[in-house]
Amino acid sequence: MGQHQRENLAPLHLHIPEPKFRPGDKADFSDIIVPEVDAIARPDEHVAPADIHALAYGLVRVLDDENAATGSWNPGLSADTLRLMLRKMLTLRAFDDRMFRAQRQGKTSFYMKSFGEEATSVATTMALHRDDMCFPSYRQQGILITRDYPLVDMMNQIYSNRGDRLKGRQLPIMYSAKDYGFFSISGNLTTQYPQAVGWAMASASRADTRIAAVWCGDGSTAEGDFHSALTFAAVYNAPVIFQVVNNQWAISSFSGFAGSERTTFAAKAIGYGIAGLRVDGNDVLAVYAAMQWAANRARTNNGPTLIEYFTYRGEGHSTSDDPNAYRAAEEYALWPLGDPVERLKAHLIATGEWTHEQHEALVATLSDEVKAKQKEAEQNGILGHGLHHPFETMFEDVFEEMPAHLKEQCAQMLEEQHDKFGPEWEAR
Ligand SMILES: Cc1ncc(C[n+]2csc(CCOP(=O)(O)OP(=O)(O)O)c2C)c(N)n1
Ligand SMILES: [Mg+2]
């Protein structure tokens, strides 16, 4: 009973979002509208944001139901480029599988896969220039793989071993690679959004030619940082591309808690007066085309774009999660937009540029390659086996000259280690 209730008025109540399907239910996605390819044709890259509101509610597609590439958004990529895209996505899948298993084997404490979302990191990176700056979330390892970052270095970071370029200072998978245009991943959701805008504004204020691209999840759009970033970018017309990987879930919360029952994520662009595109995130060609369109706009001072990739998180949130506890089984198999790798494969086979045999052979080769890299990385150590950066390095790299109080603390730590583990530990 409310404290201030008037008898002649209906009591107020809140709406609490509830996902449509729970464990034990059979998922039914028949209410998801998948428009025809080219339902809205590709507009000129210099179009005013106010003239393309419909694109924020539509779904940019290139691969049709038979996996033929059609329509005005078709980026017309060569078969070689498409095979490279396929290779990168398969490498990512092989890498994810090995590292997930490594966590289960106790070789690391944590891992996050990107199964089902591979197009949103691989195809987007291929549409950018190599020197454009990426501000990823934790599920865009595909950027590093696409930019040929060494897999062994990624694994060293996951194992926090003595080869880890980040010296064990970051949670596994939170890479940082400045020389690859890959900003340090932060566990604090959406902090990368204002950082990307700041970087893009700096690039423009220096009359540079590089642009910034930033990724976050559907759930992350509920963070204040998302909105202040969009405001800054709109005000200053910053050369930045905002991407929302709408994989339907934020750990165990479905996208409704971030507002998906009310509008699309792409439509948030409209309120800020910037361009917004909603894209089939499992269609590599549509993802590439959207990023290319947005990048061309940003590069020609036509301002920021917000792209929503409509996709599905095929597996658990992380190795610490079990989606069987909160969502219906087989949701991924029933997802109406299919699987990004399977669709590209089918497209290449249909156009005579690929065969099932070639595909199987490539999957096997990549699996062997990743396994070999894993062996190499494990020479540098795995979790709990002692081969990590020396403890004293945790005090380094903050101050140019280590202040006296840190020197003292470091010495005290070494002394305590000595007392606890003795000379054996020191000899390592
Ligand atoms: C500021 C902040 N709040 C909460 C968390 C805990 N958290 C980590 S991941 C996550 C879900 C994010 O979901 P989404 O943005 O959809 O990305 P996805 O995991 O689906 O890729 C949450 C709530 C966090 N890391 N940081
Ligand atoms: Mg999500």
From TrEMBL:
Q: Which CDD domains match?
A: TPP_E1_PDC_ADC_BCADC
Its function, per the record, reads:
The branched-chain alpha-keto dehydrogenase complex catalyzes the overall conversion of alpha-keto acids to acyl-CoA and CO(2). It contains multiple copies of three enzymatic components: branched-chain alpha-keto acid decarboxylase (E1), lipoamide acyltransferase (E2) and lipoamide dehydrogenase (E3).
- Write one Gene Ontology MF term: branched-chain 2-oxo acid dehydrogenase activity
InterPro entries the record matches: Alpha-ketoacid_DH_E1_comp, DH_E1, Oxoisoval_DH_suAlpha_N_dom, THDP-binding
Oxidoreductase: present as a keyword of the record? yes
Q: Is Oxidoreductase included in the keywords of this UniProt record?
A: yes
Protein name per UniProt? 2-oxoisovalerate dehydrogenase subunit alpha
